[in-house]
Design a protein that fits this description.
About 30% of the residues lie in helices and about 25% in strands. By secondary structure, it is an alpha+beta fold. The radius of gyration is 21 Å and the shape is globular.
Length: about 450
């Protein structure tokens, strides 16, 4: 031991409380594991509360939407409905029907679900280091307000989005931008006092041509020309996904850095807020309905779509997604298209769809880091090619992955934490009992 203070020993530790991590902690605690959820922010939810307000991935896109995610995701939406309005935005293009909520409510819903499940939560706590022996994580070092502390668990779920646990463990992963162009980053913002009736007088395409014209005029600095705005549960308040920040820095020694580099991340935060104010100016000047609108919130942090993807026992491929491949060990489904946000010259967003009404299976093996024994990875850092991750990263899928990882972690405690020692049938039974949708026959 290192002499640091101990924060205790748990059955399961989940690092990161985004859609994946909060779901993992809820699932592990519901399955009876003594669970600790560690989060560096002062609230739960990651992107789902710090950046966004719309769940995609519950439904397949297209004319006949099928619901492909249930379980904890349904509990989250039910919790949101208890606190206020939730808007279902049917969508035959994009990622399918979106479920739009008030992010401030979701913070409280995540807290309610984790605490009623019996999970312990530690906020303002940054996992900084990992002690590993023979593929087993022995303990984590966490920076807390009281100083550095060590904490132990039989199983660790890396739901940090950035695969921080696997990185500190020396486990293999692919850094965004090394094999394929990295997805760009976005600072989101909300505006109030928008006249929605007037806003609806122009189409999405007209909004985009006004953005392009404004950028070409040289009067506005708008790197992205096809950003979107959407209604929220609050009258006259819109939320946007408009800014675009390149995360790749080319270093003098020929290497590249992405948003896991502290300086790149810092610059991205500053640049995101600068761009957001520029888009606000454009909207007020150039878009009907925004004449009297005002900025009310910037995202708490810049939105990260991908940074590190672990190397798992299986790596989900682009072909798997586009062919809606099914797997013997699948723990969930995804019908969302490959949604790729490009940077650099000619930047834009592209969507590539699965066959109508279909969904790809998410294999359990994509949640098991190849180099670890008592560790799982869930959410946007799961094991996938760039293109496959650009589909399966939707928040409903992150919740499904989290539920599977948390449930498996709890089951593995009985096997000394060895995640591969749990029979898949045992996991499948527990997941179905928890309302998870694992195959097309179970979809509605
Ligand atoms: C701009 C943008 C728009 C998007 N739009 C949508 C959308 O409309 N709908 C949709 O469904 N999906 C959308 N996505 C994708 C989706 O939001 C993400 O893929 C998903 O939220 C990822 O969830 P996660 O739990 O894997 O990771 P995250 O939400 O990134 O959560 C990771 C958590 O881990 C914490 N953490 C990280 N490192 C540490 C550490 N070392 N110690 C402690 N805590 C740590 C973070 O603070 C964070 O809370 C969007 C993404 C972005 C960036």
């Amino acid at each position: 031991m290192s002499g640091l203070q101990s924060y205790g020993a748990f059955d399961v530790i989940v690092v990161g409380s985004g859609a994946a991590g909060s779901s993992a902690a809820i699932a592990a605690a519901r399955s009876g594991a003594d669970t600790l959820l560690i989060e560096k922010l002062p609230f739960l939810g990651g992107n789902s509360t710090a950046v966004l307000d719309t769940f995609y991935g519950f439904y397949t896109p297209g004319e006949q939407a099928r619901k492909v995610v249930g379980g904890i995701g349904d509990d989250v939406v039910a919790g949101l409905r208890q606190l206020g309005e939730v808007v279902e935005r049917p969508n035959t293009y994009g990622a399918g029907t979106g479920v739009t909520y008030l992010a401030e409510h979701l913070k409280v819903v995540w807290e309610g679900l984790t605490s009623s499940a019996g999970a312990r939560v530690l906020l303002h706590a940054f996992v900084q280091d990992v002690a590993v022996s023979d593929g087993r994580i022995d303990r984590l070092t966490v920076a807390t307000k009281a100083g550095l502390a060590e904490v132990e668990a039989a199983v660790v779920v890396d739901a940090s989005g950035d695969a921080d646990v696997c990185h500190h463990s020396g486990f293999a992963y692919e850094a965004a931008g090394t094999l394929a162009p990295a997805q760009t980053l976005t600072t989101t913002f909300r505006m109030a006092n928008v006249n929605m009736e007037k806003r609806r007088t122009i189409s999405k395409d007209e909004l985009h041509s006004r953005m392009a014209a404004a950028a070409e005029s040289g009067d506005y600095d708008l790197p992205r020309k096809e950003g979107s705005d959407h209604i929220t549960p609050v009258d006259g308040m819109v939320a946007t996904v408009m800014t675009r920040i390149d995360q790749i820095r080319r270093n003098a020694d020929g290497t590249t850095s992405n948003a896991t580099d502290p300086d790149v991340l810092t610059q991205a935060e500053i640049e995101g807020r600068r761009q957001a104010l520029e888009y606000v100016r454009f909207l007020v000047d150039q878009v009907p309905g925004y004449e009297n609108a005002a900025l009310v919130a910037l995202s708490s942090q810049v939105g990260l779509r991908e940074t590190r993807r672990v190397t798992g026992d299986y790596r989900l491929t682009r072909a798997d997604v586009l062919n809606a491949r099914q797997f013997d060990d699948q723990i969930g489904l995804c019908g969302a298209p490959i949604e790729d946000h490009h940077g650099g010259a000619g930047s834009g967003t592209t969507w590539e769809y699965l066959p109508e009404g279909s969904a790809v299976g998410i294999p359990l093996r994509t949640l098991i880091p190849r180099d670890g024994r008592n560790v799982l990875a869930a959410g946007r850092c799961f094991s996938a090619e760039h293109d496959a991750q650009a589909s399966v990263r939707s928040m409903a899928q992150c919740m499904a992955m989290g539920q599977a990882a948390g449930t498996l972690a709890a089951l593995a405690v009985r096997n000394g934490g060895e995640v591969r020692a749990v029979p898949f049938a045992d996991l499948a039974q527990e997941l179905r009992r928890g309302g998870a949708i694992m195959d097309m026959e179970a979809t509605q």
